[in-house]
Design goal:
This protein is mostly beta strands. It contains 1 helix and 18 strands.
């Protein structure tokens, strides 16, 4: 005859009335060990190419450590009907993903972030990020899922140039008409030649004009760099 019941999530022993009279320490000590694991215990899962389903005893630990060299995408499944918070530490190697889901087959799952701790919550049916409050990007910033990136081109107002590409010899010039910067090349005047090269502009005299009889033309090179 079973003289105890177990709690739903951590399987903590609940003795029936008038049981364990002379050995009450047996369930009490077991329970305190489970409670201790729920606050600081670690269960290690070695992964390679096969899915793994955790047991309720495994999930008495708050810290799930994922190790091993991955050779395929794998799924780590939490037991059906077991709820709780877990810190999943993904230290695996290999360019593959680990999905955290419930063995109950609920519609929601979470990717275990590589070389990081992922805080999750499972309700016994699905797995969720424990903190999934939305993040909104500010001016010039896009947020897609867990990826934050700059909008391209980066606007002048956000410290960029507003440009995506340049040709040889182009400069960025202030433009009040657009409220930003425009890319343009220099225009040669009389007796001036301009040569636009990759990263350089060469300006030279092409004869005629004053100059006081000086025999030498002038040539100036500029190294152009932009954001």
């Amino acid at each position: 005859m079973v003289d105890y019941t177990l709690t739903t999530n951590k399987a903590i022993i609940k003795p029936n009335f008038n049981t364990y009279i002379d050995d009450w320490n047996t369930p009490v000590n077991t329970d305190w060990d489970i409670i201790d694991k729920a606050f600081g215990g670690t269960y290690t899962v070695s992964l390679s190419s096969s899915d793994v389903t955790l047991s309720q005893a495994n999930c008495q630990n708050v810290h799930i450590l994922l190790t091993g060299a991955l050779s395929a995408n794998v799924t780590v499944k939490f037991p059906s009907g077991v709820s709780g918070f877990f810190i999943v530490d993904n230290t695996t190697t290999g360019a593959y993903n680990i999905t955290l889901s419930s063995n109950a087959g609920g519609p929601y799952s979470v990717l275990a972030v590589k070389d990081a701790n992922t805080l999750i919550w499972t309700d016994g049916s699905s797995v969720y990020l424990a903190d999934n409050s939305p993040v909104t990007g500010g001016a010039g910033i896009d947020v897609t899922g867990t990826v934050i990136s700059l909008q391209v081109p980066v606007a002048v107002a956000n410290g960029g140039t507003g440009q995506t590409a340049f040709t040889n010899g182009q400069l960025l010039i202030g433009n009040t008409g657009t409220g930003g910067l425009s890319s343009a090349t220099l225009t040669a005047g009389s007796n001036i030649t301009i040569t636009n090269g990759p990263g350089t502009i060469t300006i030279a005299s092409s004869g005629g004009g004053g100059g006081g009889g000086l025999p030498n033309p002038f040539a100036v090179s500029y190294l152009i760099a932009g954001i």
